[in-house]
Amino acid sequence: MLKNYSSQIIKPLIFLFILLPAIVLTSSCSLFNSKEPVDPNDKSLSIVFGYFDMENAPSWGGFDWVSIKQYKPKQAYYSCGVEEGLFWHIGVTNGSSIQVEEFGRNTRWYSNTIYTYNFGGQGRNDTSRIIKKPGAYYLGSYTYKAIESDSFFKPDNFDMVKSKTPTEKQLIIKLIDIMKKDSDLAVYKHQIKLLETRLKQLK
Predict the structure, then answer these.
(1) Which of 13, 36, 138, 165 is deepest in the core (most CB within 10 A)?
(2) CA 35 → CA 98, 108, 112, distances in Å?
(3) Which residues pair with 99 in a beta bridge?
(4) Distance between the two ends of the chain, CA-based, in angstroms?
């Protein structure tokens, strides 16, 4: 469900939103979870990634943050890196059960509106994965599809529909390139190797 907050409504909540791990403004935030920075030497970690096509969404340019919820073995949140529809996190712990919970866009100079999208689903949704061993886990590619309300007084809803493009292979190639070119991400050689291993499996 889409929440659209005007500047008058959100002012009292600004401090609260700053504290939420879902509010991510730069891709460098992919280095952190709700606890501490990701250790580049920890080879027990996994990298997860996916893609959202938000061309037809009302959020003026797509999205710039994604929050992944870990609901087992204990609750935690991962704030994802984002670039051109691709999102990822490099430090998901082994044994975790995860899924995308919310994502959105914080419009800036042209608007004071914050868009928050709930991925939806009762319990587990289509992005749900169990991290059984260190690896590269694809959460899927999805396209925003508006569902018009049957009433003028009710807000429109939406679905995130699975898409065949971009493919897992295309996203891995793009993500490897992003990580190798970013000095903050290039040190995560374990995660890059996991992506390269998965890429070989797809060929």
Answers:
(1) 138
(2) 16, 28, 29
(3) 69
(4) 37
The answer for 167, left when phi > 0, alpha when psi is -120 to 50, beta otherwise, is: beta
Q: How many domains does the chain have?
A: 1
What single-letter amino acid sits at 47? I
CB 163 within 8 A of CB 139: no
Crossing angle for the helix pair 189-202 and 168-181, to the nearest 10 degrees: 150
What does pTM read for this prediction?
0.79
Q: Is the peptide bond before 73 cis (omega within 30 degrees of 0)?
A: yes
The phi, psi pair for 91, rounded to 5°, reads: -130, 45
Tell me the per-residue pLDDT of 153-165, one tens digit each, with 9 for 90 and over.
445 588 889 999 9
Q: 189 in helix, strand or coil?
A: helix
pLDDT (tens digit per residue) in 146-193: 877 654 444 558 888 999 999 999 999 999 999 999 999 999 999 999
**Quick one: how far is CA 137 from the chain centroid?**
13
